[in-house]
Amino acid sequence: MAQFDVQKLIQSGGGPLAGEDRVRFAPSPTGYLHVGGARTHLFNWLHARHSNGKLVLRVEDTDQVRSTRDSENMVLQDIDSLALTPDEGPVQGGAYGPYRQSERQELFKVLALRLLAEGRAYRCFCTDAQLDTKAQAAKAAGKQPHYDGTCTFLSAEASETRAKGGELFSIRMKAPYKDYVVKDLLRGDVNFKAGMVGDFVVLRSNGMPVYNYAVVVDDYYMRISHVIRGEDHLSNTIRQVMIYEAFGWELPKFAHISMILGMDKKKLSKREGASSVHDYLRNGFLPEALINFIALLGWSPPDGKEIRPLSEIVELFDLTKLNKAPAVFDDDKLTWMNAEYIRAMDINELAQRIRPFVQAAGLDPDVRGAAWFLEVLGTVRGNLRTLTEVGPHLEIYYADRFAFEADAKTMLSTPEAKQVIKNFRDEVEKNQGVSSEAVLSSIQNAVKESTGAKGKNLFMPMRASVTGKLHGPELKLVLPLLGAEETLRRIDAALSL
Ligand code: GLU
């Protein structure tokens, strides 16, 4: 990687570029991508594609304990599986890198020293322990836990001397005492009253930048035009605006998107269970379905048509029309949508995607050739809600998996049912198997006539005898795929129950 030339970057300037929207997704990687993060990424991606702009992926890895390279890879892998590739990022590279905050430390330092030199920030020698004690005392006294000003009025001389003497210091920004109004594309004017925030650290004594500071520096030099992120960051925006102001930099446009709530109406957080993209994909959700579903968490198509290709969502997406109210993550709706996608997908494509799930269920998709697999898949896909469900549905086609379920056994044990399948067997043998729908119909008629059984009493024993189950794909589809020999073998097994 080319050397990071901080001076060159500063000289080339920052701020939004004329004629190109640039947005970013800035995860602090702590593991697989949570669906909330996926939504933020998607909305940024959609805006970039809709506006013919650029999406930057910036890794905010300044918390070096939590942000390991492994957790970064997990996030990138999830983004890759959704095929929502950024235009610039640690993998793609780009003109405004490096794209990991940990690799931009020099920039944060140089600029913090500028704030210091210009008197917009000062050295703070208070230790974490001292700050903790002060914050607790303020809290106990019912006051805001703002910085108490110990180092605010240190003389320049005293400050220099202590720094030269080797005392550790952080760089603390002076928070102007005045009202602020932040314009938000979705929320309009957001007011922040004077005194809401105290002086705050921008650079820690270990040289690491604080989030609110790093995010401003990076958004500025990565030439971000729109900051699209979760509403939970709205309260941070005040500090960020103060930093833009201190540097005299143009603000990007802000759009704070609504929170996502669970069905219990509580904030969806990184709780136990399937809440990362990785988990959803592993549990048999199609990336297309997941993306379509997530797009609807805060965005509604103008014509109300919810299931639609990503290209159409790109076309219709309008950042300024996102819903302000929280979105509810409804797992049932996602499952329904996934089933719709499974049903509509090109069968060859589905066969490719579902292979690992078939194999995981211990079934060999190639056992009777590719054409056979496509056909059997075609008969069961209508009943699948997730790809993981394929095993139990496909089992009926595998001789070594064939077994009678308990309710099928009970049903087959009645003398009437036995008679039906006995005559069914004779007809199957006579016809050398059930090769088509027409053959099945004539067999059914013959059995109906010879036994007097009709309706359920006719169909159920036949179905249960050859599939082992009371429910499943239509027999006219199953039997031609089973073949004569296997069909007879099963009916015999049913007869000897
Ligand atoms: N790293 C921050 C987060 O993951 C980014 C916030 C922002 O987009 O400004 O929450």
Could you explain the architecture of this structure?
This protein has 497 residues and is mainly alpha-helical. The chain has a domain of 94 residues: Arc Repressor Mutant, subunit A (Orthogonal Bundle). It has 21 helices and 11 strands. The strands form 5 sheets. Strands 3-4-7 form a 3-stranded antiparallel sheet. Helix 2 crosses helix 11. The longest helix has 16 residues. It starts with 5 loop residues before the first helix and ends with a helix. 36% of the residues are buried. The site of glutamic acid (GLU) has 7 residues, from loops. Glutamic acid (GLU) binds next to loops.
Secondary structure elements and their pairing?
Blueprint: H1 6-12, E1 22-25, H2 35-50, E2 54-57, H3 69-81, H4 105-117, E3 121-124, H5 128-140, H6 156-164, E4 170-173, E5 180-184, E6 188-192, E7 200-203, H7 211-221, E8 226-230, H8 234-247, E9 253-257, E10 260-261, H9 277-282, H10 287-295, H11 310-316, E11 327-328, H12 331-344, H13 347-360, H14 370-380, H15 390-394, H16 406-412, H17 415-430, H18 437-451, H19 456-467, H20 475-482, H21 484-495
Parallel strand pairs: 1-2, 8-9, 10-11
Antiparallel strand pairs: 3-4, 4-7, 5-6
The protein binds glutamic acid.
Glutamic acid binds next to loops.
The secondary-structure class comes to mainly alpha
CATH class term of one domain: Mainly Alpha
Q: Span from first to last CA?
A: 71 Å
Major β-sheet, in short?
3 strands, antiparallel
Mean residue pLDDT: 95
CATH level-two architecture of one domain = Orthogonal Bundle
Sheet-strand content, in percent, reads 5-15%
What is the CATH topology assignment of one domain?
Answer: Arc Repressor Mutant, subunit A
